Amino acid sequence: MTLAVVVWRLGAGPFLDGVRAVDGRALAAAAAIGLLTTVCCAWRWTIVARGLGVRLSLPAAVAAYYRSLFLNLTLPGGVVGDVHRGVSHGRDVDDVGRGLRAVAWERAAAQVVQVVLTVVILLALPSPVRSSMPLAAVALVATVIGVVLVGRARPRGGSSRWARLRSAAAGDVRNGLLTRRALPVIALTSAVVVLGHAVTLLIAARTAGTSAPASRMLPLALLAMMAMVLPSVAGWGPRERATAWVFAAAGLGAGRGVATAVVYGVMVLVASLPGAVVLVAVWLRRDRPPRRPEPLPARIRVVRRPQGAADA
User: If pLDDT is split at 50, 70 and 90, which confidence band does 59 have?
Assistant: First the structure.
């Protein structure tokens, strides 16, 4: 519906312009940045999972994260890949609930860091929403303090379902996110991921023909990225509407914003293609019949005759 509204208001021209603008350099840059951000995401996931008491190696996490990204970008909803990642990991460790919780907390931590970094940059650089940033900063600080207090709180017992849920959530935050080992890694990797996606969007804007300086484009990129977390069909819809609005509000033209979003969509889709390879490899491995063990050779029984016995 959102995508249809954008097409109705602006026509198909910006979408076609975006598709025609994509070139090999942009795709190569997207693949390189995508490798860096995916490894950072996978590292973050392993730290959170280990904090919750489930094993997860970095190579396995990278492969699963690529697969998750590809599914998120090709299936409706934008979270199918994350759910699949959590269920698959949970089955591997015989604890689906804990596998899903590790993915949920890892994604939640990433969103918190993204919001914090976005508010900080929007406070420092001019943007269409700069006047609203002080209030947003106060709300963000209050939210972060609340999360930390919940994570540091010790369970007081209780047998109700709400008490058990609150105790489990506090334990997950305390052990998976706020430890001395986990917190710096989560903050660092999430910041690298956010900046990597922002740089990808800046490259998309340049590819689509926008020549504004990076100091002007970075706040717009972060604003558009905040809309990309909304449910969508394969990533399309909220992204185009958000970029059209922020580009128009900044005086760069809504059509140029849509073209940038289209280039960005193609770039991130190409960067996620290793996930398709992982998906096919897993399917082929599962479809392969189990190898039967080779039968052991029959033992030859040697019968020793008494010494001196005559042959028959």
Answer: very high
Q: How many structural domains compose the chain?
A: 1
> For the chain, what is the mean pLDDT?
85
Residue 96 lies inside a defined structural domain of this protein: yes
* 182/174 Cα distance (integer angstroms): 10
Cβ contacts of 248 within 8 Å, gap of 6 or more: 254, 257
Determine, yes or no, domain membership for 40: yes
pLDDT of 237 over the 80 cut: no
DSSP string, 87-152: HHHHHHTT-HHHHHHHHHHHHHHHHHHHHHHHHHHHHHS--TTGGGHHHHHHHHHHHHHHHHHHHH
- How far apart, in whole angstroms, are the C-alpha atoms of residue 195 and residue 37? 9
- 13: tokens are 């021209």
Q: How confident is the model at residue 290 (pLDDT cuts 50, 70, 90)?
A: low
